[in-house]
């Protein structure tokens, strides 16, 4: 154990996260790649350009060649890391996807037939499917960022396939989503899916006694106290579809690792525009913010060892065998030393937000489940994110302790009712991998984007890509004698950086 702990501490002190090397060919795997490494398809790069993009010294910023490459004139820019890994482990995807009903299947309680008309999709522009549209399919806009670690394999696979899992999940509830006038049925195929409170009243024991006030037939029957069904909103079905799609994607990666070389894992940040609403699903430490009229609206939460400390500690408390008898679920301000046995030291467990003192014993000498602070916090001294896809074979160094049980593939999904607001040309949704947010705050990003757009022609469709390029440049900085530096001579980001800037006023045109 001592060797493993020393190695873990060395990794931690070096700020190394699982993923500090390429990882796509670790272990000399003879399995074929699931998909070849590439940059986002919408960039339209040639093999030579992809090779040039991997220059860790010059770190060129890549932007869209054509503004029409993405719907809504979305802006995009990216840059590779400063030598942290051989390849750019960020991946991105953007599409307009049509969800079509399964052949011969109808899951709607409505008896109204659906028209067979089709809608054209000229790259997403001019798409105007409305909530009560009778077109055969239902379209959604899709933007996604994936930040890989321990190789780019999982990120590449997720960028190619996650949208298909989302499509399949939405297909199961397609007709229900299109019928906004009726609440989702509790059970598909029921003649009367929505029961009235009076027809399904649950009586208390007292109320059921003969002669009791409120018994059936009593002239003073009180209103029902309990109901047998919850009212489920349509947007909850979309949230559930996204959550299930993430799980299916994670399961597919695990299954296919037996036949393909799918390296590492990845965080995932996706945005879906469907029926007038933006759904932002995040699993990891990428971030999304809306900038509207100068106001900043956070649309995601970073999932890190510190932010998910109590979930991880509770899991370890309930299933201590996952710790391999080498880690403790308790947190201390620093490593406990043997000479401190019998003394009282600050600690906290999954029940606590605050701190208290406990008497140190032998078990407390084990390595903490969560060790470190801020960006250097690690789960089992190995990985710095707690949600994402992949990482099924990730173990603590030189041990058989798997870390995957502590890593969740479930995203947090936040909803923004886009069409309920009128947006100007400078109102945008900014998506970025952690390479951006490690060095720039929400306020700095909002100020940079707002200032840049204010100096652009509102009718210039290049403005959002140029704003994304400017933002990536501000986070990367310039190369000086002491490394990459940004404003005020602060250390710039040495990580991969990928940024979308999505103008929201286009969404108002799709009502």
From TrEMBL:
InterPro entries assigned to the protein according to its UniProt record, in alphabetical order: PP2C, PPM-type-like_dom_sf, PPM-type_phosphatase-like_dom
Domain of life: Eukaryota
GO cellular component, one term: mitochondrion
Protein name: Protein phosphatase, Mg2+/Mn2+ dependent, 1H
One GO MF term attached to the UniProt entry: [pyruvate dehydrogenase (acetyl-transferring)]-phosphatase activity
Species per Swiss-Prot/TrEMBL record: Paramormyrops kingsleyae
CDD domains documented for this protein: PP2Cc (cd00143)
Residue span, PPM-type phosphatase domain: 115-504
Pfam families: PP2C
Region Disordered, annotated ranges: 104-130
